[in-house]
Prior knowledge:
Mean pLDDT: 93
CATH topology of the largest domain: Rossmann fold
CATH architecture of the largest domain: 3-Layer(aba) Sandwich
Helix content: 25-40%
Low-confidence stretches: 530-534
Oligomer: single chain
Distance between the termini: 28 Å
CATH superfamily of the largest domain: ANL, N-terminal domain
Shape: globular
Strand order of the largest sheet: 3-2-11-10-12-13-14-15-16
Number of helices: 17
Number of strands: 26
Structural class: alpha/beta
Strand content: 15-25%
Amino acid sequence: xxxxxxxxxxxxxxxxxxxxxxxxxxxxxxxxxxxxxxxxxxxxxxxxxxxxxxxxxxxxxxxxxxxxxxxxxxxxxxxxxxxxxxxxxxxxxxxxxxxxxxxxxxxxxxxxxxxxxxxxxxxxxxxxxxxxxxxxxxxxxxxxxxxxxxxxxxxxxxxxxxxxxxxxxxxxxxxxxxxxxxxxxxxxxxxxxxxxxxxxxxxxxxxxxxxxxxxxxxxxxxxxxxxxxxxxxxxxxxxxxxxxxxxxxxxxxxxxxxxxxxxxxxxxxxxxxxxxxxxxxxxxxxxxxxxxxxxxxxxxxxxxxxxxxxxxxxxxxxxxxxxxxxxxxxxxxxxxxxxxxxxxxxxxxxxxxxxxxxxxxxxxxxxxxxxxxxxxxxxxxxxxxxxxxxxxxxxxxxxxxxxxxxxxxxxxxxxxxxxxxxxxxxxxxxxxxxxxxxxxxxxxxxxxxxxxxxxxxxxxxxxxxxxxxxxxxxxxxxxxxxxxxxxxxxxxxxxxxxxxxxxxxxxxxxxxxxxxxxxxxxxxxxxxxxxxxx
Length: 534
């Protein structure tokens, strides 16, 4: 038997826009709680949330924002993020998610590449001076949260007209790190993300009685699709415990808000389990949740089930380009299935594992490239037709670049990566993007960036550097200083190794596999590597 599976379902796909779906939920559950911003001490029922969404939608229209215009959102988790997400959907504007950790170099690229017409932005967050960075790139069309420039966008009047919107219209651009040195804007439709969120919620049995805690960032699909859209399509309540991840604030919110579902990447759950006084938090209302973003250690999953009362916790696998979830475990799967695999194909989707050279499906149990097809596959990369054609083939299969196996029951196991991708603490980093930036250093003649094992984050970045003649060797501190304010913190190499040249194949290609092997020895990471590969 060949490695192919299709997701059967008695439930049809939702053939409607995000705005129309929200209206249906409001009609059914208008008086139920929809959104809680714990840090701000604010709450909305579905009727109140919809009223604020409509008021902002009207304000955007009055500002000259219409269908197809790009509106950026650059802020940590907050109620305004959620309201902006649904308001843009109501008028058909395309929401452009800007990573809260971005610096000037990355912000400028996203603003220009997407053609932003308006940016909704926080003024600052942690050490990030958003206002200063926006000013430095000369972008003037900004509405800062908490200022009159944003609050004046909320207008009373007639509800926005959604009659000219179609569910296949683009509604969201999310930037992924690019193998060509720059991020690519995965462009997603109402149909893509509404259905993905809906079926994620279906598979963990969401109802209007669920309360979903989201310590994961909203700018990722994890937050805005698997979280927000899964909740609102079922009448569940979204709870934002803090602007950024805080393990104590998260567990305090679980206890105080009687949370039934908790999300996180493995490192988040590890931090929560490791809190002093962990046993003092009342987690008795928890039932389920989602762990995704990077491989989950078996012992962590066992502790989450046993000590956090999350007996129905699910593992999800996917990528931004597939809206994002392609495979998912089910509540009745065994613990072994939920720790050793990433589940089975989602309803209404197809998966196959193919030989990367021939494109033909491989037999069950044999490794190959995992591909996904169906409603979830993105419309394409924004204004990058060539990159889109490289990722999506003529039969509309999205090539993930991940090496996987599929067993006879359709369970998928991720065993490696074809693409030169590093996953640090759940964040995807393509070394080429970091390399392109480091090439701008005046003393660097050549550079290669690799991932090396790390006990905390799974992987860390290491830069191998060839210096220009006469230049003094760079240290890790030198490289960090050069990247400060320009690259997001998780893209900054932790290690730097100065060399005269790189290991090469006979055809002149850099052997990153050999570099990684050498790095493990140089850094004394043999035990970590052995644990990661076990």
